[in-house]
Structures are given as C-alpha cells and as structure tokens.
C-alpha cells in the first residue's frame, strides 16, 4: 500500500467523488456565468443556462473552450474573479505562438500545490527527502508547482530551476538529493552527463524522479531509470488548468491518477466533440471544478489519451489517464499518413539509439520529406563510412515498418543536435500547411 | 607491422575540423598524415600522429574517436611503386577499404597507409614480397 498526502480524498469511494463533483460543478458554472462574459456568451449562444447544470452529468451541455478562445480572450477575458483576489500569474512558453496567461487566487495556489504534494508522496516522498526541482522557475508552472508541493510535503527543497548542469550535479551529489523533478529530456541529459563525469548510477542518492511537461515513452522511462538508478514517475498538467499535478503516477506506473476532486476529465472525439465512452481513445478535456482565478470549463487539451477506472493496487480511487499518445495538433500528416513523434522515438530506442534526435519535415516539389537526425553513441561508431550507411539503411527499414512511410535517417555525432535544457525541440516542420 | 590510426567522427559543418586540429596542435602533437572521408551529414577524419594515446584523450573530450589498425607500407617515391603493392593484394584477394599516402623524412621515400579487410594476411604477404612497413615505434622515431 501506498502513502498518501490526503488519504481521505485520494481513496474516496466513487459515490463520494461524484457527490463532490456534483456539488462543485453547479457552483462553478454559476460563478463562471456571472463573472466571465466571454464564456457567458458561449453558453448563451448554445442556449444553456447555469440552472440547466444540476449534476456532473450535465457537463456535456456546456460549450468547449479551445486554445483559440484563450488567444481571443487574452489577457483578461477568462478571468474568473475580481483581479484584487488574484495573487499570481503563470504563463506558457508560447512555443506554439499562442501565449496563455493564467490567474491564481491563494486558494488556487493552495489546491495546485496540494496536487503536486500528492504526486511527490505517491513517488515515495516524505519530510526526510531532499527534493531537487530543476524545472524552470518563473512564468513556467513546472518550478513553482513542484516547489510548492515539495514544501507542503516537508521535503528539503533545492530550488535549482533549469540549466547549469554542472551546478545541478554538484548540488545533487553534495546535498544528497533523493527526488529529482524536471523534464524527462533533461533527466536523460543529467544521466548522460553523470556518466561522462565517471559516475555510476549507484553513486547518487536519488530514489525517484517526477518527470513531465513533455511527452516521453516507456523506453525513455527505462533508459532514465537505468542511467540514474531511480524509479521514474510521470506527472501531467497544463498551465490552462493550473500546472503539473493535475494527474500523477503512483508506484504501479500504469497511468496517472487525475485529481478528480478538482479536475473533471472527459474524452471526446476530436472531430465531432462527442463524448466517448470510458476506455475510448480520444482528446482529453478538462474542467476546473473549483479554481477561482482561471476557471476553465471543458477545455480541450489536444492530448490524445485513454481513461481507465480499473482498480489500482495503490489504493487510490481516482480515474487514471494513459500517457498522452500524442497530441491531436502535433500529429504530423506526412504523405497522407498520420505520424506521431513518439512512434519515431520508440523505433530509435528499440534499435539501441539514445533518445537524442530531431525530426525535420519539409516539402519538396509537393512531396513531403521526413528526415530524422539521430546522434550516434561511441559504441556504434565505425571507421568505415559503409558501416554507418548500413546502420542508416537498417533504421530506415525499421522506421518504414513502424510508420508505414519512408524516413531518411541521418546519423550524426553526439551533441550535434541542439539541446535546450528545458524542452527538447523534437520536430521542425518547415512545410507551409496553413496561411 | 601495423600502426595505430585514429578515426574521428565529425559533423560536416564549418569549424568542426579546425576545432579538432587546433586542440591537437595546442598539445604540441604533430600530425604525420591525414585524410577525410565525408558524406553530406558527417565526416570521418583519419589521423596518424606522433602521440596516439594523448591525441585520443584530447579529442575524445569533444568527439567520438576510435583506434584503427592500418599498415603503412614504405615504397620508393617513383612511378609504379604503388602498383606493386596493390597487385600483391589483388592476387591474395585482400580488399582495400581505403588508402592515403604521405612522404617520409627522406626525400626518396613515400608511405601508403592501407586499411584492408585482413590486416594480418596483408602484412605477411607484403613482408614476403619485400615491402617494409612501419611499426608504431618507427613511426614515433620518424617524428
């Protein structure tokens, strides 16, 4: 059995959770209708009144919000309370060109940090742990969220923020960090750097890592667990709903428990918006049940995943979401075929390559091209050009089998693909598919 | 006698070769001979140097580097000399992966560096045919 941060709610019966959700959704819709003119207009257009929402089941009557709505309403259009009640903003990096600014009251910060604390405890954290947070601090939610959660658990918190890997390693070793919080690509990079410096996986005191903010595969999990000698836990969240901690993994590592007392999840068909039955694969939609500053209702995440209510051995009763299997908007359509970057990563790891790669999509004479650059590791290097070209050919065969289309593979020297110490830029799509 | 060649995997981009050469030169190591094989994405730099161990240590800080056994055959610096070496290898069905040449410190001698698919057989054969090849010690003494 697991340890819990808030046992009563984390292990509450299904009936109890539904009772909480029923109560909260009625109050939340009323608040949003009164305070958020942008959403009131959407509801009016759909002919839905707050009094139509009497239980959580009625949520399907409500209109969706998308990233486009957030852009239209920027910056204050979706604010849910008087600005004087708000104490913080957080913001997305704007990597997709659409910056999101979210507002938090103290109540919102507390519930967010509690969710992160649940994640840390689920990963084995207690007040005896030293928790190294190397997510970025500042506008990005990663650092502040895990920092707050770590405080709530009572861990000794190392507020490292991102970057400066030498310093990260020095603090990790000198202070005996036991829990590492960062993006999975940075965890892999730290593992790589430790190895270069001559450390063995047993030389550090780390026991667990809480990794999120970007997609990663099971193969990448295995590789990180091995290189750092830890158990690696996934954490999920987005600025629109609060930040990391919306969902988190327990020791079963078979999906992330969604904190259902605060966030209601639905799976919809991304094309029709129709709510799909449990167990279906589709787009994840979240409703904040009790946030005040930025209370988004039915926000479309674009993450494709599956929800499961199967009994979990950890004792938690909250619904589990699978790792996102891609995003309905980072799915590449190449020569008419749907391609997810995670499929390419799966092939690379299976073929024994390190997860350091970059996908470049382009269009030449109306034909899509797919090029994948992969870093060769020293054991794979051969003095003969032909050997390296044979490796490329064999990878091309494996890619074709996985994707159903051809990809041109390029093996390149280590560290020649640009890394950012936060998020890895995995895909460069040079095609102009929209105006 | 085979000698040690270093092979370095480099990105095919401006500055990558000079970075490697600069580091070797800063350590006071002499490059006896070199060649580059390249594709659009990468190049393999092959080096014969005065101190292979030290060069490997320096270069491996920023690039992948491996040791490869090659044969450096001494021949007279005159027409037809290489042909004799290649004829011998052909008769024995030994395949040449690549080769490159450098001149010795004496004005009448040249060396051809050969990477073949069977180094031991090639050495034995060339020895029997009267071709001398360099050892690591001799190479070091030349520099």
Brief synopsis:
Chain A is of the alpha/beta class and 435 residues long.
Write the topology of this structure.
The complex is a heterodimer of chains A (435) and B (143).
Chain A (H helix, E strand, L loop, with lengths): L6 H4 L3 H22 L1 H10 L20 H6 L13 E6 L9 E5 H17 L7 E4 L8 H12 L2 E4 L5 H10 L4 E4 L1 H13 L11 E5 L5 H11 L2 E8 L4 E7 L6 E3 L4 E6 L12 E8 L10 E10 L11 E2 L10 E3 L2 E3 L1 H10 L6 E8 L2 E9 L9 H19 L4 E5 L14 E3 L6
Parallel strand pairs in A: 3-4, 3-5, 5-6, 6-7, 16-19, 17-18
Antiparallel strand pairs in A: 1-2, 7-8, 8-9, 9-13, 10-11, 11-12, 12-13, 14-15, 16-17
Chain B lengths: L1 E10 L4 H11 L4 E8 L3 E8 L2 H8 L4 E13 L4 H11 L4 E8 L5 E8 L2 H10 L7 H7 L1
Could you please describe the fold and organization of this structure?
The complex is a heterodimer of chains A (435) and B (143). Chain A is an alpha/beta fold and 435 residues long. Chain A has 2 domains: 1-330, 3-Layer(aba) Sandwich (Rossmann fold), CATH 3.40.50.12780; 332-429, GMP Synthetase, Chain A, domain 3, CATH 3.30.300. Helices cover 31% and strands 24% of the residues of chain A. Chain A has 11 helices and 19 strands. Chain A has helices at 7-10, 14-35, 37-46, 67-72, 106-122, 142-153, 165-174, 184-196, 218-228, 341-350, 385-403, and strands at residues 86-91, 101-105, 130-133, 156-159, 179-182, 208-212, 231-238, 243-249, 256-258, 263-268, 281-288, 299-308, 320-321, 332-334, 337-339, 357-364, 367-375, 408-412, 427-429. In chain A, the strands form 4 sheets. Chain A has an 11-stranded mixed β-sheet with strand order 4-3-5-6-7-8-9-13-12-11-10. Chain A has a 4-stranded mixed β-sheet with strand order 18-17-16-19. The longest helix of chain A is centred in the first third of the chain and has 22 residues, at 14-35. Chain A starts with 6 loop residues before the first helix and ends in a 6-residue tail after the last strand. The mean pLDDT of chain A is 91. The two termini of chain B are 18 Å apart. By secondary structure, chain B is α+β, with helices and mostly antiparallel strands. Chain B has helices at residues 16-26, 52-59, 81-91, 119-128, 136-142, and strands at 2-11, 31-38, 42-49, 64-76, 96-103, 109-116. Chain B folds into 2 domains: 2-69, VC0802-like; 70-142, Alpha-Beta Plaits (2-Layer Sandwich), CATH 3.30.70. In chain B, β5 and β6 form a beta hairpin. The relative contact order of chain B is 0.22. Chain B is globular and about 40 Å long. Chain B has a 6-stranded antiparallel β-sheet. The model of chain B has no long low-confidence stretch (mean pLDDT 89). The interface between A and B is medium-sized, with 17 and 18 residues.
